[in-house]
Amino acid sequence: MVRQILLLTSCWALASCEYAVRDPFHIGYRVPVQLADGQHVEVETLSNFSTGLPVFYVQDLLSEEECSAIRSAAPRPAMMKSLVAREYQRVTKKRAARHFRDVDVDRDQSLDGDELAQFFKEAADLVDFTWDFLSAYLPKATAAAGDRRQVSQKEFISTDWVKFFRAAKKHHPDWFARHSYQTFVEYSDHAFLQPVLDKVAAVTGLSKSLVRRTAESMQVLLYPEGGHYSCHHDTAPDNPDFPRFLTLFFFLNDVDGGETVFFGTDLNGTYPEDRFAAGEDVWGPIESKCQSVRSCPGFDGSSPFASSLVVKPRAGSAVFWYNMAVTNEGHVGRFYWSSIHGGCPSKGEKWAANIWLHAAHRAGQEL
Ligand SMILES: *[C@@H]1O[C@H](CO)[C@@H](O)[C@H](O)[C@H]1NC(C)=O
Ligand SMILES: *[C@@H]1O[C@H](CO)[C@@H](O)[C@H](O)[C@H]1NC(C)=O
């Protein structure tokens, strides 16, 4: 506690410490923070570098009124389906031919289950399927059994993939990497959001002016029943336009399910520590394993992520973490691949909001 105050005060004295990050110390560490309205909250460390990624939790950071004001600032008609870039592409016959060439890695002029799964992922972020469901679209391939199920180029190209993806979305939204609605809300349009930003400053230990200056517009999310978001990073290591060094995620209502899971953490110490410092070579395969909603801890008891940190939604609470190292002056450093996280299926409507803070400068050679 004393150490924390000293660290922060010595930084406040120096403009060059503007971006000082919060020290997680150990898991369970709590630091009291007084908000502008006199209310006290505690910032609790849920995970630190030993378990993969520093993650902090603040209960009751927003009042009920603030939660409902944020939800009202994002009226339903303004909510757009959250899309990943790929979904904008319609898989026409011509595109299908190109997709086929791309995913037929063994060049045997037919696709096996793995190659087909690669196509679904690339074309529409569809990460689960059953052959049963496919039988209406690929009758020849699905008539065969087991290993003999191969989709010929002819059958693949003559399939109406637009219709297929539409039907899959309608009947199995859980098969897609993402199922939610979103909109962006401008702070300047809503007076009540300024104190919310100041609360973000208080709990992260950053200055109010820095938070107001570097916060991306608030992203408000609505997950319908069954809504989810597979594991992902909030920013890319090589994206100089979006160095979102910090994510603060608000839960805006109480709902069962809909947990935020940090797939890059391991609270039981099952994994070697050097995994957390590893790069894309190690994290790429891990990321591909947490795409299906079945990877959520507790889903069927066999998830390889059973010891990951899970945060349950609770109205008004917030969880925040760093996506990359940042120096006191705001220079971007090492990307935290272990900041990979996702939202598990909610058992009712789930409202949430993201505030991303941007680092000031590019890292240049460091990236
Ligand atoms: C993380 O927290 C644990 C206790 O929960 C502690 O044993 C460990 O030393 C901490 N790691 C670091 C790097 O401070
Ligand atoms: C993690 O450790 C806790 C407490 O020691 C235990 O209850 C739990 O089953 C463990 N989980 C995994 C996935 O090892």
UniProtKB/TrEMBL annotation:
InterPro entries: EF_Hand_1_Ca_BS (IPR018247), EF_hand_dom (IPR002048), Oxoglu/Fe-dep_dioxygenase_dom (IPR005123), P4HA-like (IPR045054), Pro_4_hyd_alph (IPR006620), Pro_4_hyd_alph_FE2OG_OXY (IPR044862). Residues 1-17 form the signal peptide. One of its GO terms (cellular component) is endoplasmic reticulum. Its cofactor is L-ascorbate. Keywords: Dioxygenase, Iron, Metal-binding, Oxidoreductase, Signal. It comes from the Eukaryota. Residues 214-359 form the Fe2OG dioxygenase domain. PROSITE patterns: EF_HAND_1, EF_HAND_2, FE2OG_OXY, PROKAR_LIPOPROTEIN. The keyword Metal-binding applies. GO terms for molecular function: calcium ion binding; iron ion binding; L-ascorbic acid binding; procollagen-proline 4-dioxygenase activity. Pfam families: 2OG-FeII_Oxy_3. Residues 91-126 form the EF-hand domain. Transmembrane segments: none annotated. This is Fe2OG dioxygenase domain-containing protein.
